[in-house]
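I hope you will forgive my troubling you with a question about protein structure. You will find the record immediately after this paragraph.
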Amino acid sequence: MMVRYRLMRSQDVPGVFKVDQACFLHNWTQDSYHAEIKNCLSNYIVAEADGEIIGFGGFWQVIDEAHITNIAVLEAYRQIGVGQSIMNAMLALAQEKGCVGMTLEVRGDNQPALNFYLKNKFTREGRRKDYYGLGMDAIIMWRYGLE
């Protein structure tokens, strides 16, 4: 299986939305992803295998910081490097665009995601109480330096 990584295009939205629906409890809408295509701050990478979107990741560039909005990979394609390749592509794109740091919020109880970000040189920098709903805090993570 060959996986291709590239920038998201408008025709990718249905596939990205399908991955979102499969991976997240608090899903974005298809309209949200269509809006991201038009958002000048938005940068999304898709992972595609055999013409199907199997994962994606996005960030907003705010001055010289990249704020990750979401990263998702279909369960059948996890643990084989797809998520890491998406992250690598996002880091390279953010650096190319002049970003010097990257940040995100992740559910405090999402240990696989926390481990993934820690492995990618992110550090825990704070907490947003009830960010994902009552009793569901977010951990704020930062990575300074994208090289």
